[in-house]
Amino acid sequence: MTMNAFFARGAAALLWALTSLGAVAAPITLTDDRGRALTLPAPPQRVISLLPSLTESVCALGGCARLVGTDRYSNSPAEVLMLPKLGGIDDAQVERIVALKPDVVLAATSARIIERLEQLGVRVVVVESKTHADVQRSLATIAQLLGTPERAAPVWARIQREMTEAAARVPARVRGQRVYFEVDASPYAAGSSSFIGETLTRLGLGNIVTPELGPFPKLNPEYVLKAQPDILIGAQRNVSEMPARPGWRALRAVQGGRVCGFDPVKYEVLIRPGPRMGEAALQLAGCVANLPEPR
């Protein structure tokens, strides 16, 4: 190799390295779900997530190693279990968050800590997911934030494949049957306009909660009794005590054992609007497909 060729190759390598470094350090500009535009000088390397679904999204997009703390309920994937736990939506620990020197904090709209953190100079990106479309957009926003926008589409495509697979597992005899999906024993229900309701629709199931009641309405128990759902779904601890509720033994779903009760680990998958929505659909399909025939 001639000396000129040697220096030319060295210059090319140096140019490639500088170009790559510039790409990595390129500023990130995005608009969060408050409609607020934010610019970061480079993709964040120290990220705090204050919602389990956001934690799961960061990890599904390849950013798990950048997390330096999460809310107390983030428990998936296993890598996040040992991270500092910083409270929840209503009691996030400001001092500990600031001490971790995050480049950015991911939070839901309802998080009470947002204004305080911003007053202290911490960048907050608000991400809210109530529907399937919201989840798709949230994945794209987080991927953009991490500087890896190309990773969002494959994650969303996987969710869609799993949804399609789940729908194919629901027998024709079950399709069209109406579901009461309980998210809290108060009782709060998953309405047809929620991400859970949209999953039920993808599976060919109906919902006793009509769209005008909102995504997660609190119902009068009489509403459920009058609606006579074909299938009851919820956390196992709640489903198991439904027969003891006043009047609920009159529900045909109770009498016929047409209930899907999920243990805490599986139930968490159902109620988190994030990258495991396809897994949630598969769980639901697996249960309803094995229910006894209506009486």
Task: Please give a structural write-up.
By secondary structure, the protein is α/β, with parallel strands linked by helices. The protein folds into 2 domains: 25-147, 3-Layer(aba) Sandwich (Rossmann fold); 170-288, Nitrogenase molybdenum iron protein domain (Rossmann fold). 40% of the residues lie in helices and 14% in strands. It has helices spanning 3-24, 52-60, 94-99, 114-119, 132-145, 152-169, 195-202, 221-227, 236-239, 252-255, 264-270, 277-288; strands at 28-31, 37-40, 47-49, 67-70, 104-107, 124-126, 178-184, 188-189, 206-207, 231-235, 259-262. The strands form 3 sheets. Strands 7, 8, 9, 10 and 11 form a 5-stranded mixed beta sheet that branches. A 4-stranded parallel beta sheet has the order 4-3-5-6. The chain has a two-stranded antiparallel sheet with strand order 1-2. A hairpin with a 3-residue loop joins strand 7 and strand 8.
Q: State the domain count.
A: 2
Overall body shape: elongated
Q: What's the helix-strand series?
A: HEEEHEHEHEHHEEHEHEHHEHH
CATH fold naming of the largest domain: Rossmann fold
Cα-based radius of gyration, to the nearest Å: 23 Å
What is the averaged pLDDT score? 92
Structural class designation: alpha/beta
CATH superfamily of the largest domain: Nitrogenase molybdenum iron protein domain
CATH C-level class of the largest domain: Alpha Beta
Instruction: Give the amount of beta strand, in percent.
Output: 5-15%
Low-confidence segments, given as residue ranges, are 1-24
Termini separation comes to: 86 Å
